[in-house]
C-alpha cells in the first residue's frame, strides 16, 4: 500500500526582502482510492493556508492578503499546491510545512525560507580592533552592527583561524551588535588580522582586515566586501 506522500517541497531558501512574486510549491501523491483531501501549510507552528478542493484555497496569518492563486495553479489539486506571494516581508522568515491528509492517510514535509534583510539594508558597521591584554598577549575584537539574521564571525591571524570562544550579542542604538573577542600571543612582527562575517545558510559574506604593528601599536585598516561568496 503506497498511501499519501510528499514528493517535493519547493520553497526558495534565500529571498530578498520586498521582492516578489515568489512561488512556494508542495508536490504530493494521492492514491486513486483516497478521498477527503485537505492541504495545509504552516509557518513555524501556525497554520497559514488550507485547501479543500474544489473549494478555493484560504490563506490566513502572515500571508493573508499577500497570496494569489492563478487558475493554472489550481488545475492539479491532487498533485500539487502552489502559493504565490505577491511580495515577501521579513516576518515570513522561518520554517514552512506542507501537510496533506485524506480520510485514509496523511503526510507532511518541512523546509526553511530566509528573508535577506541585509541585502536590502546592509550591516551598518563592521570593525576590527586590537588592544593589549597583558605584557605577552593581545586582544582581537571584531564587531558587526545591524546585520540580521545574526551573523557568524571568525578571526584570523596571518590566515590562521584564532577562534577560541563563541560570539556574543547585545543591542546598540536599536540595532543588534555581534562581537567576537579572541586573546592571542603578541607578535614581534606586523601581522594581518582578518575578521570574516557570514550569514548562516546564505552566500552573503564580508571580510574586514587590519595590519597590526605591535611595536608602534598602530593598525592600517583595509577591507574586502563580498556578496554571493565572491571574495
TrEMBL record:
Superkingdom of this protein's organism: Eukaryota
InterPro entries listed in its UniProt record: Ig-like_dom (IPR007110), Ig-like_dom_sf (IPR036179)
Domain named Ig-like: residues: 1-116
PANTHER family: BEAT PROTEIN (PTHR21261)
The name this protein goes by in its record: Ig-like domain-containing protein
Taxonomic source organism: Ooceraea biroi
Amino acid at each position: 500500500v503506497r498511501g499519501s506522500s510528499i514528493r517535493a517541497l519547493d520553497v526558495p531558501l534565500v529571498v530578498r526582502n520586498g521582492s516578489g512574486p515568489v512561488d512556494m510549491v508542495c508536490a504530493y501523491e494521492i492514491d486513486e482510492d483516497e478521498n477527503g483531501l485537505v492541504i495545509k501549510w504552516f509557518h513555524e507552528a501556525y497554520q497559514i493556508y488550507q485547501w479543500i478542493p474544489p473549494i478555493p484555497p484560504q490563506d490566513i496569518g502572515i500571508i493573508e492578503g499577500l497570496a494569489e492563486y492563478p487558475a493554472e495553479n489550481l488545475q492539479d489539486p491532487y498533485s500539487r499546491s502552489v502559493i504565490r506571494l505577491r511580495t515577501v516581508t521579513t516576518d515570513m522568515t522561518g520554517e514552512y510545512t506542507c501537510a496533506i491528509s485524506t480520510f485514509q492517510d496523511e503526510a507532511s514535509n518541512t523546509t526553511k525560507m530566509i528573508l535577506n534583510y541585509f541585502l536590502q539594508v546592509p550591516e551598518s558597521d563592521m570593525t576590527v580592533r586590537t588592544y593589549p591584554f597583558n605584557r605577552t598577549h593581545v586582544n582581537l575584537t571584531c564587531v558587526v552592527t545591524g546585520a540580521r539574521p545574526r551573523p557568524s564571525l571568525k578571526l584570523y591571524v596571518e590566515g590562521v583561524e584564532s577562534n577560541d570562544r563563541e560570539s556574543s550579542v547585545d543591542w546598540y542604538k536599536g540595532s543588534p551588535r555581534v562581537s567576537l573577542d579572541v586573546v592571542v600571543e603578541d607578535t614581534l612582527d606586523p601581522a594581518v588580522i582578518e575578521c570574516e562575517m557570514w550569514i548562516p545558510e546564505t552566500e552573503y559574506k564580508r571580510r574586514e582586515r587590519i595590519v597590526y604593528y605591535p611595536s608602534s601599536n598602530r593598525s592600517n585598516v583595509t577591507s574586502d566586501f563580498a556578496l554571493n561568496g565572491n571574495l
